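Checked the freezer inventory, then went back to the computational side. Two predictions to log before the end of the day. The first one is the construct we discussed on Monday; recording sequence and tokens without edits.
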Amino acid sequence: MAVTAYAPASTGNVSLGFDILGLALAPIDGSLLGDRVSVVEETQAFSLENSGRFAHKLPEDPTQNIVYDCFLGFKAEMAELGIDVQPVKMKLEKNLPIGSGLGSSASSIVAALAALNGFYGNPLNSELLLRLMGKLEGQISGSIHYDNVAPCFLGGLQLMLESETQISLSLPTFDDWYWVICYSGASVSTAAAREILPAQYDKATTIEFGRQLAVFVDALHRGDRALAASMMKDVVAEPYRKSLLNNFDASRAYSLQQGALAFGISGSGPTVFAAVDNLNAANDIKSWLEQNYIQNENGFAHVCKVDTRGTQVLEDE
């Protein structure tokens, strides 16, 4: 029986939590902002069928696709458990643009591994599966980090713990906040976005980073929306990365003028986000960004809520 997994988009950092905060997103209009991967059947040789809005950006050779790497990683993990995994036929519905700052690679990785695990009767528990997801993500970005794969897999707002026994902690969120996201259509690689950052930070910046994160987490647990929003300023990456994004400052200025609680870069960019507590304001900001931030036909904008479900796995008849 075929198994299909849907893994939602995510925004890493959420401005104040560089590499250690991530948030899963779900458009309020019900559209799919995330990738779907299916494991159809066992075959003589691995095969992958691509579809979706951004399938044309994927390599034609299936062995160059991250989904194939996921199959190899899963096969190796199963071999350690004494389970033999045969080649399979897989399908990837690529709904997220590559290099968008919306956890595109994480979405494909999480959906692929969740579908493979489901197809073989869930031999890996959630913790082992998440660690494998982080390992595969590290193959793309150059280092293992979970701020996209953890919220993509688990849902909600995740704080990276990365201990020997647990990868992340789920934080409370505010149900009345909307998250407006806008992808410009341009592409910014995680590697390029990291190269523009300084190798070292001064003491004042590191103290500010720690203070913001501590106060933000405390404010979430106490339900203090105003205090939480006031902490959402990026002192680590945004001052440097915003130079890679056209019209960023104007987009921020307009969003804040319209009542946005916070505005920042989603992950490595070029997607930007605005946290808003009013739907009319959220729709207005979305419309303005569509007219002024999107650069080409690949761009899009959505009003989202937090995706609390994370990855969904379904068996297909």
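The second is the one RB wanted added to the comparison set:
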Amino acid sequence: MTFTVRPISPAEHLAHVRSRRSVSFLQTPAWADVKTEWRSESLGWYAGDQLAGAGLVLHRPVPRLGHTLAYLPWGPDIDWTGGLTVWFPPLVSYLRSQGAFAIRIAPPVPTDTWSATQVKEGIADPEVTRLTDLPGRPDPVGAEVTRYLRDSGWIPQNPEDGFGAGQPQFTYEIRLRHPDGTARSEDDVLRGMNQLWRRNIKKAAKAGVEVTTSAGGEDLKAFHDLYVHTAERDRFTPRPLAYFETMFAALSAEETGRVALYLARHDGDLVAATIYVRVGGYAWYVYGASSTEKRDVRGSNACQWAMIRDSLAAGCDVYDLRGITPTLSAEDPHVGLIQFKVGTGGEAVRYVGEWDLPLRPILYRAFDLYMRRRSR
């Protein structure tokens, strides 16, 4: 089979997304409207007149270089189990013709998976410091994709801690279906959680924590105030309110119910808030915030449980708690993140990660130097 790659309209792209069981929200045409600082385009892979795959490309201009980095976050949406030699050459040819000096992709393909039990045992073992010290369950498709990219000149961009400038390589996910494809029940998911998580969910309910959902609007300001408070406490740089307003406007316009705000209140006080995104059979916990006060009422657990229940009700296959670092050392400050998420049951997943293909090596080296200097 031979493919050609050419631009498609947002409407054609959205029709493709809707025809799939799921596609990452970062590969929907609406995401282009969120990343306003990038030039964007939707591309389609055609076999004759048949659209077989699609991808959202974000073109990042680099000062003084006159060319762009072409970035496909968590994509493209193609058949990764097929021969990649038919999918990638037409993409490379097209983006080269559009002035890209390099292409960056983040294939939505796992390479290894670790159960919650393995992760907990690893944390308890002083000789284990990283997930990769444990024997994971390998994925042959991920291994083949990795081999193809390496042999084809792509360069891995995966930092040691799992968090780079783009998408996390390690995530934590809860499977919402049994291996035979049947849906799990709420009770079954609860049984998969550890005792502390079950206790905290019950504690939140007993304390009178109420979780409501919102399509954004005025509630976004309340979320953002709590999010900024969380950023100050946990020492990270928060995004501006305008970013979230743009996100809700774009995703909501594309599909009703695609994005939602979950707000946990206790006696009228906002104690936790989260942002939830769903595309087809896949749901994500994208952002979270919590109050330093009233942490004992467990608003964060209440929000998570509400999002998981809604994912089950929607018939989702996966609830994705997003990025973790691969550290399991008790001395690493990041270990608390995986400890919180592992309590939900589920599994830790390593993906192929982000890879760059230099198309103009001199410009790519200049870009790499620019990024290194900027990160100092």
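For RB: The mean pLDDT is 93. The two ends are 46 Å apart (CA to CA). Let me know if you want it refolded.
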